[in-house]
Amino acid sequence: MYFNQKYERSGVLFQGRFKAALVERDAHFIHLPYYIHANPLDLVMPEWREGNLKNPEAAFTFLTSYKWSSFSDYIGKRNFPSVTQREFLLNGAGNEERYKSDFISWLKSIQLDTISDIIIE
């Protein structure tokens, strides 16, 4: 009620059904963390979703400085380490440095068609 009054709006804040997709294939599991960590790029480089990322290095720099994501925690730059549990993903990736290098490689050759069947937009 406070939010609606403050911003002169009406209705519920969170409406619609929860959406989920089952991760069934290895390709889903491999690419999905990168996709999730790349989502903040919508703010500065929305073309990344079409695979048209012109400057992967600038995208990486933005993501490492974007404090509302757990990405930096996964590459060894502490952001919110007390609220993230990275062990499972990092065990699969190898370590923080490997996740970082694999993520950069993924940015350079984004192929969202690999996980298009589970992306919920």
Tell me what the structure shows.
- By secondary structure, the chain is mainly α.
- The protein contains six helices and no strands.
- The two termini are 28 Å apart.
- The mean pLDDT is 80.
Structural class category: mainly alpha
Helical content class: 40-55%
Multimeric organization: single chain
Radius of gyration: 17 Å
Mean pLDDT: 80
User: How many beta-strand runs?
Assistant: 0
Large-scale geometry: globular
Strand content: under 5%
Total domain count: 1
Summed up, the helix count is 6
Order of helices and strands: HHHHHH
Biggest sheet: strands, sense, closure?
Answer: none
Distance between the termini: 28 Å
Low-confidence stretches: none
How would you summarize this macromolecular structure in one to three sentences?
43% of the residues lie in helices and 0% in strands.
List the helices and strands and how they pair.
Blueprint: H1 2-6, H2 26-38, H3 56-65, H4 71-74, H5 87-93, H6 96-108
Keywords:
single chain, mainly alpha, 121 residues
